[in-house]
Structure formats: C-alpha cells, structure tokens
Amino acid sequence: xxxxxxxxxxxxxxxxxxxxxxxxxxxxxxxxxxxxxxxxxxxxxxxxxxxxxxxxxxxxxxxxxxxxxxxxxxxxxxxxxxxxxxxxxxxxxxxxxxxxxxxxxxxxxxxxxxxxxxxxxxxxxxxxxxxxxxxxxxxxxxxxxxxxxxxxxxxxxxxxxxxxxxxxxxxxxxxxxxxxxxxxxxxxxxxxxxxxxxxxxxxxxxxxxxxxxxxxxxxxxxxxxxxxxxxxxxxxxxxxxxxxxxxxxxxxxxxxxxxxxxxxxxxxxxxxxxxxxxxxxxxxxxxxxxxxxxxxxxxxxxxxxxxxxxxxxxxxxxxxxxxxxxxxxxxxxxxxxxxxxxxxxxxxxxxxxxxxxxxxxxxxxxxxxxxxxxxxxxxxxxxxxxxxxxxxxxxxxxxxxxxxxxxxxxxxxxxxxxxxxxxxxxxxxxxxxxxxxxxxxxxxxxxxxxxxxxxxxxxxxxxxxxxxxxxxxxxxxxxxxxxxxxxxxxxxxxxxxxxxxx
Length: 502
Description:
The protein is α/β, with parallel strands linked by helices. It contains 16 helices and 23 strands.
C-alpha cells in the first residue's frame, strides 16, 4: 500500500518509523493509502535541517524571497485542478469547494508577495540632535504549523507563505487524515526555487507534535483545531518559550431580524451551515431568529431548500453535488450522537440526517443536513461545536436578547446579522463579542490583507493569522538608535554615567 512520507531537505524522505495511520476516501469508506507517523528522533532531525537552513534564508533579500512566492503563486494556479482533486478525494468536500479553498490560500501567497514593503520597518530622523532611530523586522528562526483536516490547503497557507517570505524556515505537520496535499505544496515550493531545508513536512501524531512544542530550536508555533487542543498547544509552547498563535473552536451565530431580506438570508444560511458538510471553523451553526413569525418563515424556506439538496461524492461525472461526506466514520458517529442528544434534551428535530444513505456509496461517511428548532442555550447541541451539517434555530423575542445570547457563549469566532437597518447593523458590529462580523454576509472570513481570528475561547495568543498580524507574528522588532559624531578625536568624548536621553 502506498505510504505518504515526509518531505525533508528538499525531497521525499522515507521514514524509519514502524507506525502508520490509514487514509480513507470518505465518499466510499475505502482505505486508499497510509501515512507514516514519525518518531520523536525523526522530528528532531527535521528541526535540525530547518535550523541549518535558516541563516542563509534569513539573509536572502526580501525581494528574492518575494520572487519565490510569485513563482509559487503561478504554480498553484497551474496545478489548481490537481490540488482540488487531491483535497476532494481525501477530505470529501465537493470539487468546487476544494477549488475555493486553494484560491483562498493562494490569496495569502499574493499578500506575501508584497513582503519587501510589509517588512520595511520604521524610521525616525533626529529623535535627538544628530540622533536617528530605525527599526528592523527580523525573522524568528524555525517556525511550525500544526494544521487540521478540514482545510489541508488553505490553513497551511494562512501560515507558511508569510513565515517564509519574512525569512523564517518552516515545518508543516498536517493532519494525518488528509496529508497528501502538504507534500504537493512542498514540491511546488521547491519548483518555485525555495532552497532545500527551508520548508519541510513531517507527518505524525501527538508524539511528533510534542517534540515540535518543546524543541528548543523551534521559535514559533501556529495551530488551528479544537479549543481543548488549542489550549494545550498554547500552554505547552508558551511554557517552553515559544511564540504561539492557537486558533480553537467556534459556535458561530447569526441574528435574523424581521426586516431582513428573507430569501437572501435563507440562501446564505444554507450555504454557511451545510457547505463542506459543516466542517468549517466558520460554519454557521446557530440561527437566532427574532420573533416567531421570522422563525416560521425561515424554517419553511430552509425545509424547502434542504429537500432539494444533492448529497454525494465530492467528484462526479455529472452535475456537482451540494454536499459531500464528513471526514471519517468516527466523526460521523460523533455527529449522530449529537443529534440524538438534541432530541433527548427536547429540541424539535425537523430534518434528521442520521440515516442518509447515498446509492452506490453505502459505506461512505455521509450525514444529511439536519435542522433543529426550539433549541435552548442549556442544550448540548447549542453549547458545543458539532462540526457537522447541523443547524440549530433559537427563537428570541427581540434583538437585545439575541445579542446577549451570542455574547454569553464561550466561543467568539465569527458571527453575522441579517437586516436592512443600518443602525442595527452598526450597533451589532460594535457590541458583539466576536472577532469576525458579517453584515448580510454569512461567513465573514477576511481577505488575506486583513487578519483572521476570533475572541474568547476561540483563540489563544495575541496575534491572529495572515494580514499585518501575520507579519508581526513571524518577525520580531529590533530598534536601532544611532549617532555619527562630527569628529572621532578621542579627546572630544567623555564618559557619561546617567541615563541617556535625547
């Protein structure tokens, strides 16, 4: 059986580990290949390779680093179809969604192409008589990205393009559920002219992760995943002196106001709730409807649309499906358990996706779109991230009650409001406790030149990913204050023992 190996020092490197994890096609349930789970000793060797490559890459001019990013961008565009098919086959998302994922990652590469401007630093002349100050934005060293299964292209590209462009070396530890895309990205970076050892891929599980979190030569760790793991990543990396950004879970709400364009809002909620089978950290999983009439109209619209959805494999010969499978049998069982719990706790199950069977793919990991009404804040399906195609309707009497509901939740990743009223929208954007806000936009993921990140227990660490925060995360500031005397004759200089001032 084919084994997905590591990419170290510019080449595919066969591991000596005897531990492996299976890789499945979620649409069929069949194992397609396996991935090596690297030993601690092998991970340390990868760190050594990245550390050795750092000095030369850090001294490479920003312009030359940017040119590598430009070539990498072109190669991503040329290989878009191949990359999207790899994602769809290993993750399960439909082909067009996979293309969209690569495109959103490519946008961060485009942002990183501007690194000569972004890494300029600051300069102040004559801060004192004959004294100037300037800052240097210097790279950190070896940086690490630990990424989830749901976006095997986009999330890594939130991280490594900016890290590489600013002069760091990088080690990517992808999810063992869909690791093949990471190796393709590594090959394209090498083809783009990136020197060997600057970008490496190491596959593994917690044993590999713990080495990356504690190895002294690793300077920074970026992570995206569930909140319990994000908290562990952040606390462990920070305790070992590393800079860390760890993005965790979410329970993204929208408020649907009575004055909203209902058809537009319902269409937006459909895609945001059920796209990628709900396996998005920005998936819209709770619709807070203001007034029973609004709730009844939304449910009627959603029910009609859900009945027309096509569920099946991510890649088909004919018309594309609307939604594919979830990632694994274990995750399917977890989602179904949440649905059962919702029923047991008294929520109204309007559409049940537990028993969906796709003809010809009976062994695939399919869960149909699921719709709950009359969900209450104390219910498990409201409180916890399900990470599946499950939408909860919560009814509230007024706007303020809905806002308070969102603000009390432990997560604060993204949120949205659907309304025609500008005053309400403006108030919501100012008062809601979430890091990303959409106004009539269901999935408010910022463009690459802005930064992505949530609030509360959706993020650990002060700096978000990509945008200016990304540049700041992967660099550290050094400020130089200089004076050039008019004469170097020694007798003109005297010692000073007081605090220097300007």
